[in-house]
Amino acid sequence: MLRIVPRHLRGCGEDSESKPCPSKQRRKYPLWVKGSLNGKLVRRSLGTTNWQIAVQRIAEIEAAGSVQPTRAPITVAEAAARFLSEAESRELRDSTLKKFRVLLTRNPSPGEPSAQFSPSIVMFANSRKIEFLKDWTPDDVSDFRQCWKDVGLSKLKKSERLKAFFRSAHESGWIPTNPARSLRPPKVQIPEWSHFRQRSFPGSWTLARTNG
Asked: How many of the other CB atoms lie within 10 Å of CB of 54?
């Protein structure tokens, strides 16, 4: 018998599987499946925080008799849409959602100079004729980042969002391996005045990084 188990968020104040997170976090905790199937112990992430999706995935697992039920490969566009939908359900800040849309699905505005535009992952995949997310390789991920016009801290943060997307896709079972796992962060030079400000005004620095 399989059951849904919430995994508590760091700092939520609970560590027991039998108790829910505080009400403010209740819609955001990751959901896992736990139990036994065909005499084998099952304990793994369901790759979602949505209870209805979790129930559906457990039904698929039980119907297939395996924790890795056969699925049709997911397209790049579909993966981007699902990721954004899940991000919206987690009630992320609008500014964060906007940055993920730019990374995953944004198209250039009419008249926007191509020299100033970074392609989204969907646009890049179409240009490379990569239909399915599972066909992405580490080289594709690296080539995609090389197309960006972003520099400095903006490029670093965008790289983190790219890794978060592929990590989520892998944990959700959309892809067998994570092609962005070995992607190294770009080198960013932090101005000397930033180090001075961090040492002299640690509270202000933390607030600036949180709001930035």
From this structure: 20
Please identify which residue in the block is written with the tokens 């969907």: 122
Residues contacting 65, CB < 8 A, separation 6+ = 37, 38
Whether the CB-CB separation of 31 and 51 falls below 8 Å is answered with yes
Rounded to whole angstroms, the Cα distance separating 162 from 147 reads 13
Q: Torsions phi, psi of 44, nearest 5?
A: -160, 165
Mean pLDDT of 18-46: 71
Task: Please give the residue range of the domain that contains residue 60.
Answer: 2-64
Give how far Cα 121 sits from Cα of 19, 75, 88, 104, 168, Å.
39, 12, 19, 5, 15
What pLDDT sits at residue 210?
43
What single string gives the DSSP state of each residue in 112-154? --GGG-PPPHHHHHHHHT--BGGG--HHHHHHHHHT----HHH
Residues 51 and 97 reside in one and the same domain: no
User: Do both 87 and 162 map to the same domain?
Assistant: yes
Statement: the pTM of the whole predicted model exceeds 0.70: no
Q: How many domains does the chain have?
A: 2
The secondary structure of 80-93 as a DSSP string is HHHHHHHHHHTT--
Mean per-residue pLDDT, 53-69: 77
Tokens of 43: 């304990």
Would residue 112 count as lying in a domain? yes
Same-domain pairing of 16 and 95: no
Residue in 101, 77, 106, 182 with CA at minimum distance from that of residue 140: 182
